[in-house]
């Protein structure tokens, strides 16, 4: 039935257009359609003829025939992809022509009664729909009597599916009508094409991009707005007009859930509520007075009714997320446009429901991402265990050679360096090395005079102080690479000013640590070495191959890797200080900048650090006995990038995973905070870090200095008193303990251990004994409140780190070395028996304080076998048994006895009978080279 809306334009009627709107056609589209149809037929017939000839007139080979159909369809899909997009109205004649072609093929091959005719009749429904898909029918409905899918199902299922569709296929393709509701299949396909066209256009981009470019174009973007309005008017005016004027079409889109589901309603809402406004605005801008589109208020009513129907009919799809959230929002937009309290309450409820659903989906994505990352880590760990990842040296990994293009983010180039000193990075580093007394550059050369060096002054400085050294931890990142390049530049300029060799101005040492955890790490190490050689920098490489991430336990890996890193730092600093060069300003330069300071503030705050430890880093600090320099700490990273890009300093690609904690903090959290609180918030974080350091310095001078002055260092560790300060707060103790422990290269106690520590020292009568503060080193509390902290090298408190002692005899006068201990047994001169007994009974340690000195002496009696002049050799032992324990160790702490490498008499060899002659043996354990 034709719509009787007063807005409907006049239409021409014909015998074939009763009951539906005629699609618009163009001569060019008909020509293109005919060409495609003829091409399909010719390709099909050419293959079929070839098969007939190949079959030697014995009929068409069935396999060859099916292959011909398959090749024809595949070729048609490729050809159709190259044809320009056509409107939905052009699809109908193409469908009829394809159906006709298939009918011609059946008749040419001998009719439906022939062998081939029966085969093609069987697959005609499937073939027709595939060809329809190739020319623009995005949603295919398989029809026909006996299809390929029908042969793959049971008879009952096939009959049920045919009855549900209610379709009957005609061989000539001219009559595909629905028996149940008289709905032409071509009409269904036209509707599907129009619905998909609207939905795909409106939701073609991500929400953020579509918001700016389509949905809510800024009023200032007049050109963009006019372009979108014109595009929507040209593409969708006729569809919206048909939908508004043809009641049957509107009912099909919104009521036929079995055909169009919720997409028909979404498309109708978009057409009436959104696209119509673009078309009205376009007509108004162009001054079109005869607008054949209904008024917007009429379209709003249509959109409102469809929106209510969407909410009621598809409630389950909405709540379960089957309907995407952007479509859900536009589906309820007509209710918001209605602007009534009732409607807006419904919108608010839907918005809250959408927000809850979004949170659930976000949690699901995060769980999936976390599981994926864990799986990736497991696969990488497995590859490392099998030696397939991160184990080969140099730049070759699994047969792959990494070149510079694969590891570099920025490439080196020759640049004009005349303006380099005026750059903020150069000035910052120059001021820092002066401040640290590393190198005093000639101020007269740099146009910022404070003092001018004469030639005699320069010679005197070099002769009296030697050549200074700067050590850089060179990872290959932009920060450390720029530091090395700037130091080399300052050194070279100073050498030219002083008319001397650059080696006499400043020695630069670069330390690179290859963790061997990534395939390209070997190539990166090789490149950094070449970079250092080019700049005249001494290069030191430390490859960590004794542990492997994924193979070694995670906690052990992090601990050992850190120990290795700081060990190479300490050894390099020691070499610099002992080779005759100047010892001033010896430390490791790190590339931390102002951005790292901000990240530390957030990380430390969430990890429970106090107000004095928010920054976690200062320009100069000491960690594990290593002095650390951070010359760029108060400089923004943008300046570092600018120096690199201006003066050709190369650096590696950032390999920090976006899913890692650091990646999330840097790429998601900090940008979000800046978006919420403004650009100044980042400076506030940096300022907070600086003020935290200032407060730390103030507290250190007024409170911590008196405490630190009574800390005493010994060869085996250090001691400090607690009695004068035991009433101080938890904050005080956490602060001073961190200072004391870090200055001595020991890790900080946990919060729980600090609380337990305070409970032990605050009681009226202190119980003496070992404290469970750390697993890796020993802590002892005396009754007086004195605390002794032992170095793990000389006193391995953890059984895992215990000395590997072999029960072997030790020669007199020569001794043996175990760890840092030198153990030497000596035969003493003859003395009276009473005197010998007294010496044997004298305690090896008068007090645990004596253990801190690292020098232990005790006496034992060793039997002299009959017929021998020398006593039996003593044996290495890790703890004595009760029966064989020397008198010198009786009554002493068993933990000390079990930890130290001691010598004793092996009584398992006591097979002598009668009187036994004994010799007095002096055993000395001495510790050398530990504790400063």
UniProtKB/TrEMBL annotation:
A GO MF label:
tRNA(Ile)-lysidine synthase activity
Show the taxonomic lineage: Eukaryota, Sar, Stramenopiles, Ochrophyta, Bacillariophyta
Keyword Lipid metabolism included in the entry's annotation: no
Q: Which UniProt keywords apply?
A: ATP-binding, Ligase, Nucleotide-binding, tRNA processing
- Organism superkingdom: Eukaryota
Q: Which residues form the tRNA(Ile)-lysidine/2-thiocytidine synthase N-terminal domain?
A: 471-657
Gene3D superfamilies linked: HUPs, TPR-like
Q: Which reaction does it catalyse?
A: cytidine(34) in tRNA(Ile2) + L-lysine + ATP = lysidine(34) in tRNA(Ile2) + AMP + diphosphate + H(+)
| Enzyme Commission number, as recorded | 6.3.4.19
Annotated region (Disordered) at: 1-21
Sorted alphabetically, the Gene Ontology BP terms of this entry are: tRNA processing
Q: What is this protein called?
A: tRNA(Ile)-lysidine synthetase
Query: Which InterPro entries does UniProt cross-reference here?
Result: DUF924, Rossmann-like_a/b/a_fold, TilS/TtcA_N, TPR-like_helical_dom_sf, tRNA_Ile_lys_synt, tRNA_Ile_lys_synt_N
Q: State the Pfam families in the record.
A: ATP_bind_3, DUF924
Keyword tRNA processing listed? The answer is yes
């Amino acid at each position: 039935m034709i719509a009787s809306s007063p807005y409907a334009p006049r239409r021409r009627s014909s015998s074939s257009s009763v009951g539906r709107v005629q699609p618009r056609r163009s001569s060019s589209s008909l020509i293109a359609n005919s060409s495609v149809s003829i091409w399909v037929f010719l390709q099909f017939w050419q293959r079929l003829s070839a098969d007939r000839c190949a079959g030697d007139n014995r009929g068409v080979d069935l396999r060859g025939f099916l292959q011909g159909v398959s090749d024809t369809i595949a070729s048609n899909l490729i050809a159709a992809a190259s044809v320009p997009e056509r409107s939905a109205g052009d699809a109908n004649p193409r469908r009829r022509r394809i159906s006709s072609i298939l009918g011609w093929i059946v008749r040419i091959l001998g009719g439906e009664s022939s062998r081939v005719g029966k085969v093609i009749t069987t697959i005609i429904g499937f073939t027709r729909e595939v060809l329809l898909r190739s020319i623009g029918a995005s949603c295919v409905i398989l029809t026909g009597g006996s299809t390929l899918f029908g042969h793959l199902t049971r008879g009952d299922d096939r009959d049920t599916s045919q009855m549900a569709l209610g379709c009957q296929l005609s061989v000539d393709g001219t009559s595909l009508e629905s028996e149940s509701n008289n709905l032409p299949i071509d009409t269904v396909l036209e509707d599907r094409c129009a619905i998909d066209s609207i939905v795909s256009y409106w939701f073609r981009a991500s929400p953020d991009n579509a918001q700016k470019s389509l949905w809510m174009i800024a009023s200032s973007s007049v050109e963009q707005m006019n372009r979108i309005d014109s595009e929507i008017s040209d593409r969708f005016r006729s569809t919206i007009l048909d939908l508004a004027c043809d009641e049957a079409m509107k009912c099909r889109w919104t009521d036929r859930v079995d055909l169009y589901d919720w997409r028909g309603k979404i498309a109708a809402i978009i057409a009436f509520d959104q696209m119509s406004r673009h078309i009205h605005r376009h007509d108004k801008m162009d001054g079109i007075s005869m607008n054949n589109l209904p008024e917007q208020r009429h379209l709003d009513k249509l959109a409102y009714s469809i929106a209510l129907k969407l909410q009621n009919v598809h409630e389950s799809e909405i709540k379960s997320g089957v309907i995407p959230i952007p479509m859900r929002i536009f589906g309820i937009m007509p209710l918001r446009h209605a602007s009534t309290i009732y409607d807006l309450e419904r919108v608010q409820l839907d918005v809250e429901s959408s927000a809850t659903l979004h949170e659930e989906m976000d949690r699901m994505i995060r769980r999936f991402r976390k599981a994926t990352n864990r799986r990736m880590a497991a696969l990488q760990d497995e590859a490392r265990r099998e030696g397939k990842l991160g184990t080969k040296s140099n730049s070759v990994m699994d047969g792959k050679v990494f070149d510079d293009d694969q590891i570099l983010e920025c490439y080196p180039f020759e640049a004009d360096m005349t303006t380099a000193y005026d750059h903020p990075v150069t000035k910052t580093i120059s001021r820092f090395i002066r401040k640290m007394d590393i190198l005093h550059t000639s101020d007269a050369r740099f146009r910022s005079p404070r003092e001018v060096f004469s030639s005699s002054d320069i010679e005197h400085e070099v002769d009296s102080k030697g050549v200074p050294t700067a050590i850089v931890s060179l990872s290959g990142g932009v920060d450390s690479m720029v530091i090395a390049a700037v130091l080399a530049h300052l050194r070279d300029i100073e050498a030219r000013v002083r008319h001397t060799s650059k080696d006499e101005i400043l020695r630069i040492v670069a330390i690179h640590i290859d963790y061997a955890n990534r395939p390209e790490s070997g190539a990166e190490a090789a490149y950094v070495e070449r970079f250092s050689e080019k700049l005249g920098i001494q290069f030191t490489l430390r490859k960590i191959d004794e542990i492997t991430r994924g193979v070694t336990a995670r906690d052990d890996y992090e601990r050992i890797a850190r120990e290795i890193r700081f060990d190479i730092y300490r050894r390099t600093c020691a070499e610099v200080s002992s080779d005759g060069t100047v010892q001033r300003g010896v430390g490791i330069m790190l590339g931390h900048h102002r951005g790292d300071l901000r990240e530390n503030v957030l990380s430390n705050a969430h990890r429970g650090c106090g107000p004095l430890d928010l920054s976690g880093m200062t320009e100069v600090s000491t960690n594990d006995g290593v002095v650390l320099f951070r010359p760029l700490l108060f400089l923004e990273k943008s300046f570092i990038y600018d120096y690199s890009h201006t003066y050709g300093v190369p650096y590696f690609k950032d390999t920090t995973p976006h899913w890692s904690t650091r990646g999330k903090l840097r790429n998601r959290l900090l940008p979000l905070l800046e978006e919420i609180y403004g650009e100044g918030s980042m400076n506030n974080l940096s300022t907070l870090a600086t003020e935290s350091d200032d407060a730390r310095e103030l507290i250190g001078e007024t409170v911590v200095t008196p405490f630190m002055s009574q800390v005493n260092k010994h060869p085996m560790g250090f001691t400090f008193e607690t009695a004068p300060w035991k009433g101080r707060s938890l904050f005080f103790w956490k602060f001073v303990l961190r200072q004391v422990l870090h200055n001595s290269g020991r890790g900080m106690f946990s919060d729980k251990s600090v609380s337990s520590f305070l409970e032990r020292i605050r009681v009226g009568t202190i119980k003496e004994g070992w404290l469970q503060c750390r697993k890796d080193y020993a802590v002892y509390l005396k009754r007086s409140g004195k605390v002794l902290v032992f170095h793990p090298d000389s006193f391995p408190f953890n059984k895992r780190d215990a000395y590997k002692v072999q029960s072997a005899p030790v020669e007199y006068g020569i001794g043996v070395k175990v760890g840092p201990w030198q153990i030497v047994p000596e035969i003493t001169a003859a003395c009276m028996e009473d005197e010998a007994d007294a010496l044997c009974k004298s305690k090896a340690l008068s007090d645990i304080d004596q253990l801190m000195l690292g020098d232990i002496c005790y006496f034992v009696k060793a039997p002299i076998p009959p017929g021998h002049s020398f006593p039996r050799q003593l044996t290495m032992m890790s703890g004595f048994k009760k029966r064989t324990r020397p008198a010198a160790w009786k009554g002493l702490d068993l933990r000390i006895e079990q930890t130290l490498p001691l010598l004793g008499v092996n009584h398992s060899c006591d097979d002598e009978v009668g009187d036994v002659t004994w010799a007095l043996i002096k055993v000395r354990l001495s510790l050398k080279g530990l504790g400063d």
